[in-house]
Amino acid sequence: MGSDSERKPASNPLLIQQRKRNRPMNSSSSTISTKPASKRLRTSQNLFGPQPVAFPLLERSTNGARRGDRTEGAEQHPDAPRDVLLSLVGGVPIPAALMRAEGFVVPSKQSLELLRRKVCDELRRDPHNSDASVLDEISKMASSDEIARLLSIRGWWSPSLLELFVTTKVVRLSLSASLSSIFDVGRFVGVFFRQGSFSRLSSLSLGGVQISEEHISQLRLLPCLVCLDLSAAGLTTNHLLHLITHGPTLRDLNISSNPAINDDARIPLSALPNLTALHESLEFLNHRHERYCVSIPEGYVQDPRAVPSLTIPNLRKNLELHRRCNRDITTEGSKVTLVDRLMRILCGRVADERIMKRVGKA
């Protein structure tokens, strides 16, 4: 009799309630599972690979409000352990220590008051930045963006100060006045090369700073970059290839005073579909009449898509038109060679016209 009673399911209401609490969270529930963190972590890894991706800023609370809006960083779930953050994968908790080990930026619950105090303490370590009136002004500022603007104008940025703003809501940032021979440029831009770093930054100025291809490639993790100033930065056409990752967001680009940029720049610039303002010296565009015929008369092909259907005499006729402007163009060769040659000329002409429209010169 005793063995039969042991096999019967428990009917105690308290036990049933406890079992319900131990069940994993489903899609319609707003509570978190009480399974051990190690088991929940293994579930996340099995489904989505060995590197858990967590963005706590997007986690919603039970009342529908976006969590993390009341502080500069993200908040934890009220029922989660202190060292666990929620991910987007069904609310799966990810230990903060593991996220840091994998290289992710873990937003901290840093208040504005704490940020102001840390900035002032950092500035007091440098005797050139210890202006009491300015420090008092910083201690009264109402947002992290105001503090960043003052540091940009004064030229007081340092790698350690940038570290304090990694998880803040800074929108505009200028490092032009702060970079000097004392600091390595890589120490500054390396702060941006982290998942989740400066996730609200929309405007960045590096004008007048000599940057390498490696440095500009470290900007590719900035998700909301709209305005970028790279004037007089020693850029080449290869530098611009690293900006293609910002195609969905980038609208204003300043690449003026970079003489090493040549006519090949039309390739990466054409890959920025949302670009509405382009500031450049226009050297290669100003001399485009020396590379092909800019104003094609009636009776000649302007659309590159029509080139493959042309006969050999018509191909040579069109190439001869452009040869009048550029003596390097030849009209000899097979049909495949002639088609390829004319296609390159007309495609380059179309790309140049698009760029001219964006800079308001067309």
**Strands, total number:** 7
Number of helices: 15
In angstroms, what is the radius of gyration?
Answer: 29 Å
Shape: elongated
In the sheet with the most strands, the strands line up as 3-4-5-6-7
Q: What gap, in angstroms, lies between the N and C termini? A: 95 Å
Helix content: 25-40%
Order of helices and strands: HHHEEHHHHHEHEHEHEHEHHH
Pairing-aware structural class of the strands and helices?
mainly alpha
Mean pLDDT: 75
Biggest β-sheet: count, sense, barrel?
5 strands, parallel
Note poorly predicted spans.
26-35, 37-92
Proportion of residues in extended strands: 5-15%
Structure notes:
There is one protein chain. This protein has 362 residues and is mainly alpha-helical. It contains 15 helices and 7 strands. The strands form 2 sheets. A 5-stranded parallel sheet has the order 3-4-5-6-7. Strands 1-2 form a two-stranded antiparallel sheet. The protein is elongated. Residues 26-35 and 37-92 have low confidence and may be disordered.
Key terms:
two-stranded antiparallel ribbon, 362 residues, 15 helices, mainly alpha
Set down the secondary structure blueprint.
Layout: H1 2-7, H2 13-22, H3 37-48, E1 84-86, E2 93-95, H4 96-101, H5 112-124, H6 132-138, H7 144-154, H8 159-164, E3 172-174, H9 185-189, E4 203-205, H10 213-217, E5 227-229, H11 237-241, E6 252-254, H12 266-270, E7 277-279, H13 283-286, H14 312-323, H15 335-358
Parallel strand pairs: 3-4, 4-5, 5-6, 6-7
Antiparallel strand pairs: 1-2
Helix pairs in contact: 14-15
